[in-house]
Amino acid sequence: MPSPSRRRFLATLGAASVALSGCLSDESPPSGDLGSVDGSWSMDGRDAGHTRRVDDGPTDPETVWLTALDGARATGTPAVVRGDLYVPADAVSDRSRYRHRIHALSTATGEERWQVPLRSAPNGPPAVRGDHVVVTAQRAPERGRIVCFHGRYGDEDWLHDVDARLTAAPTIDGGVAYVPDWDGRVHALSVFDGSVRWSRRIGPADHSRTFAEPVAVHDGVLYVGSLSEMPGVVALDADTGEELWHERTAPVTAGPVVHDGRVVVQTRELVVAFDLDGTRRWSFNLVDPGVRTMAVDDRHVYVPARYRLHAVDRRGEAAWTYEPSDERAGTPTVVGDSVVVRGRDSLVGLSRDTGEERWTRSLDGVGRAVVTPTAMFVSGYRGRVLGLGD
């Protein structure tokens, strides 16, 4: 069992620092119970293809609980598995030597189960397989770290250092965690003990690639996008790291995302789709490009630009465009027949077919939505985490 020094109970949050529309009383933050939360969002983008898509979820969400993590200045995107929420946090504490932490919370109530310090700055959400919680981090400007914690108690299972810059969150497929780095290598490690399955530099040594975003995995193939020097999309054999094909593009700034026979990336002003064999199918021009994560389903690719959200159909043509009232289009998530999109200080639910607004929730600043069939979780300002349900 974890020692008392490794547990930290939740701090209450005064009403003066909270502004949740229709959700909070004037006395205290909400502290309800979501009950049993089924389903999972086990890594960045939910699955190994990074689709940001779930078949079902809350259709009219309200905040059920709000947790303020002790000493946290900011919270990152969490992962959800089997009733636990794993949240990266940027924090200060007189009890810890380290600024960054991972908190494990109950999905039902937001109650803290454990917290552990991170000796490096996390790159994004953890990736979870069973009782193994894998985090990538930057331990120095040109040095990275991959570390695994036990999901039940927070004990460190294994650690692997990389002599290159890491900015991508891990992707887990089967029992393997895949992590690309900025020196053009991709690392495949066993989730269970951290042993290296393979580590390979992709491309010629004198023309290296830069991999800044997570790899996507589908049917035994890795897809990774290169940002500089040799930009483009590369497909690798997941078992060996052997290159299967590559296609040149402009520098890849978001993706790859893989779903329904397509590999989709953003290259600054363009969204580009390929077949799984590398055949280029279409490209779509963005008028006001941003650099944010896409979502995809069997109808559209949902691409957030600076001030609008574009829905692009499977032929590469514009289906609809949504312009939020607060002039910010954040990361989209497909939830059943809706698309949930982050605004500056709100979440908005849109029709997948038309882009018409269905609901809006003011949440005083939120991160990317993480969704299960019965609940939705978002990070807020000043170390907050919110659990929403119907």
How is this fold's topology laid out?
Layout: E1 53-54, E2 62-68, E3 72-75, E4 79-81, E5 84-91, E6 100-106, E7 112-118, E8 121-122, E9 127-129, E10 132-140, E11 143-150, E12 156-162, E13 171-173, E14 176-180, E15 185-190, E16 196-201, E17 216-218, E18 221-226, E19 232-237, E20 243-247, E21 254-259, E22 262-267, E23 270-275, E24 280-285, E25 295-296, E26 300-304, E27 309-313, E28 318-322, E29 332-335, E30 338-342, E31 346-351, E32 357-362, E33 370-371, E34 376-379, E35 384-389
Parallel strand pairs: 1-29
Antiparallel strand pairs: 2-35, 3-5, 4-5, 5-6, 6-7, 8-10, 9-10, 10-11, 11-12, 13-14, 14-15, 15-16, 17-18, 18-19, 19-20, 21-22, 22-23, 23-24, 25-26, 26-27, 27-28, 29-30, 30-31, 31-32, 33-34, 34-35
Explain this structure.
With 390 residues, the chain is mainly beta. Helices cover 0% and strands 46% of the residues. The protein is built from no helices and 35 strands. It has a five-stranded mixed beta sheet, with no helix packed on it. Strands 3, 4, 5, 6 and 7 form a five-stranded antiparallel beta sheet that branches. Strands 8, 9, 10, 11 and 12 form a five-stranded antiparallel beta sheet that branches. A hairpin with a 2-residue loop joins strand 4 (79-81) and strand 5 (84-91).
